[in-house]
Amino acid sequence: MSSELGGAGDQPAIDVDGRTYTYDQLDRAIEQWIDAHGPRASVYDASELPVPDALICVCAAARQGTAVIVENPEARPDRTEIPPSAFLLVATSGSTGRPRPLARTAASWFDSFPAFTAITGIHAADRVLITGPLHATMHLFGAVHALWRGACVTDDPSEATVVHAVPAVLRDVVGKAPKLRTAVVAGTALDDGARAVADGIEIVEYYGAAELSLVAARRVPEPLRLLDGVDADIRAGLLYVRSPYSVIGAPDWFGVGDLAELGENGELTVRGRGESAINVGGTTVVAEDVERILATLVGVGAAAVVGSPHSVLGETVTAVVELDGTAGIEDVRSRARRVLTKEAMPRRWVRIESLPRTASGKVARGRVRDLLA
Prior knowledge:
The protein is of the alpha/beta class and 373 residues long. It has two domains: 12-270, ANL, N-terminal domain (Rossmann fold), CATH 3.40.50.12780; 281-372, 2-Layer Sandwich (GMP Synthetase, Chain A, domain 3), CATH 3.30.300.30. It contains ten helices and 22 strands. The protein has a 13-stranded mixed beta sheet, sandwiched between helices. Helix 1 (23-37) crosses helix 2 (51-64). Residues 290-362 form the AMP-binding enzyme C-terminal domain. This is Acyl-CoA synthetase (AMP-forming)/AMP-acid ligase II. InterPro entries: AMP-bd_C, AMP-bd_C_sf, AMP-binding_CS, ANL_N_sf.
């Protein structure tokens, strides 16, 4: 595929780890990679490479029509075969168990780039900050799209005009990025605290899954809307998606596992994982809703909410919180009582130094449950 690079000449392409490449230099590095690793190689592996080399490897795979592995080297999935049409060999985040192997065609990403460009407004003059490892697909997608657009991929927040980040990471980045124009957030729902910190910056939020890529997107505060060509259906409250951007072997209608509502004109409201719906005495409490409220309270750095068995109510709410040092747990509990319903109010509070997170930065709810077991 010859369309992996959207820039040329002396335009900056990569500025990461103290290494810089113009688009001419990047183009030569890609050709050198192909020559060095064999033009007929069946698969490349970028998993353990530094980011600049990993991007060169991925672009070489796209140009050569070769499959490329981009996995977490510390948690590789069991992969028994490589489909003939595969371009990217990636994996789920493993937040609730062992990562599952995924394979996607080049078209399943590149065909979505024009729509993603229209939504985000990313252009060739941008410097696009990637805030996590490339084996987290939201960061790999952001970097590959930036190169396709002719922008510069960077790890320097002081020069960044666009950032890809989960909301928790965005909070930290904003103060270090004075030139930031647009924040592209994904991985978990945008909370009011992150939105407030990013005041004055255009926020683009998209919803997707490793198996599906992009499903819906919005410019905040507009509602999420399905991308053109993507269909959705709600079955027993859970979201099913049919998409041209799905991984190889995905069912025609893929069950995402999220509680959701579908409105007119493709408007989508996602309420969190179906497994995070907590039944408190017949009242459904959605863990993500409680987490978003807790994250706005003074003293809370981050929060995870899970259900705990109860002999009478069925389940009750347990909150696991990182405190930021500005308030104690009793103060946080008192503030929570003022803003949460009786059913949503946590009966058990657990203070933790650092919540377990996936590579992209979102809380790994499955590992939180394991800590409480």
